[in-house]
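2024-03-11 09:14:02 INFO worker-7 job=invfold-0412 stage=load source=structure_tokens
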């Protein structure tokens, strides 16, 4: 199997992580290095994808910076307590189906939250990971996905709300939805079980390797 290295960037400014992605994409386009999972938490930031509606879905950003980027999708929020993973993956012959790639990312997160007893799945016609909210609160979205691809090397990626302050989503219409649709692992567990970010990182990396058909390896290059 193809190797997949996990690079934990810790807490890093969005633009710095974006630059790190682009460097990795250039390496993989040239056939250098290995596929990587760039794992990070961002300080508060709102990002705009390529959707025409994205700008209109920014409501009251306040002191949160807004960054326009080249991924697919609408507007979303990143911040502390949210686990963001950027898979820099070179898709080979037989893998070059971006819809299947998206489903693989969703499946990895579905399997991850199941480890904490959270039953999640998909919503027809909507990207991301969804569930029936705690206390009969209706369908909720716990994770978002937005990717880009250059010469069959993927970048941008996924965001799983672990202990995210969901109030920040009220500054936007996340992915075109009302802010109340968003939830987190901590909210769904309602204090019944502790959610440690380090454990979620480890679990999600393992499940991504599984669904993407890769073998996890120790990162020998570090956060270059």
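2024-03-11 09:14:09 INFO worker-7 stage=emit residues=224
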């Amino acid at each position: 199997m193809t190797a997949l290295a996990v690079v934990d960037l810790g807490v890093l400014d969005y633009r710095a992580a974006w630059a790190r992605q682009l460097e990795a994409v250039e390496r993989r386009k040239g056939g250098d290095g290995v596929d990587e999972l760039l794992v990070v938490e961002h300080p508060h930031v709102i990002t705009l994808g390529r959707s025409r509606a994205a700008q209109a879905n920014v409501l009251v950003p306040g002191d949160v910076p807004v960054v326009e980027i080249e991924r697919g999708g609408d507007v979303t929020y990143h911040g502390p307590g949210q686990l963001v993973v950027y898979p820099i993956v070179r898709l080979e012959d037989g893998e070059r189906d971006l819809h299947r790639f998206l489903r693989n990312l969703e499946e990895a997160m579905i399997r991850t939250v199941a480890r904490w007893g959270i039953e999640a799945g998909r919503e027809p016609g909507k990207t991301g990971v969804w569930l029936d909210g705690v206390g009969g609160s209706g369908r909720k979205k716990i994770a978002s996905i937005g990717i880009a691809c250059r010469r069959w090397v993927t970048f941008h990626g996924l965001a799983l709300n672990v202990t995210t302050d969901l109030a920040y989503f009220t500054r936007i219409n996340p992915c075109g939805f009302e802010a109340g649709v968003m939830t987190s692992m901590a909210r769904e567990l309602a204090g019944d079980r502790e959610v440690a970010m380090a454990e979620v990182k480890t679990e999600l990396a393992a499940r991504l390797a599984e669904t993407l058909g890769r073998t996890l390896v120790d990162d020998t290059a570090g956060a270059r």
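2024-03-11 09:14:09 INFO worker-7 stage=report msg="The longest strand covers residues 139-150."
2024-03-11 09:14:10 INFO worker-7 job finished
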